[in-house]
Amino acid sequence: MIAFRPLTRLTARWVALDGEGAEHLTLERNDGRITATGVVTGEAEGKPFGAWYRLALDSRWQVKQLCVHLTDSRWLIATSRRAGKWLDGDGRPLPEFDGCVDADLACTPFTNTLPVRRLDWEAETARDLDMLYVDFPTLEARRQRQRYTCLTANRFRYEGLDGDFTREITFDGDGLVSDYPGLFKRCL
Length: 188
Prior knowledge:
Layout: E1 9-16, E2 22-30, E3 33-44, E4 47-57, E5 63-70, E6 75-82, E7 85-88, E8 102-105, H1 113-118, E9 126-134, E10 141-152, E11 155-160, E12 166-171, E13 177-180, E14 184-186
Parallel strand pairs: 8-9
Antiparallel strand pairs: 1-2, 1-14, 2-3, 3-4, 4-5, 5-6, 6-7, 9-10, 10-11, 11-12, 12-13, 13-14
């Protein structure tokens, strides 16, 4: 089983490799809860965007709330009081995301950490997951099937099962992406 360093507080930065962009993330544990706060600038479909996000996680790395604010004043909030059951920012159920435990924000490599830290992994273990996927810059949320396969203690194959996207992602001892070929490279 893969063991990651215990989390207290850390800061990470990534640069985008497929255009202009960067991310600054602060990750901290307080009273058994984990908070990930990030600022991202980037490009999607030739359009620049800027965003701030916060993910509130429980001690098992399950997303309890996600908040995303774009610099053009658009925002998205979703809350999960029970694993795999989501509510929108006004408290209305989002049944289209039933069973999605993890969230994937397209603009950040950080959200790849969520299933990697949340689940127990051994080499050659593969898991298919339903994600609450948020596209950028549209902020469109949709269900997306993904597969993670543990290749070694710090290397996973990611596959988007709704398309043909595959990458082998390298993680550090904290479970954060250090190299996401063609998309992101950790620089801090």
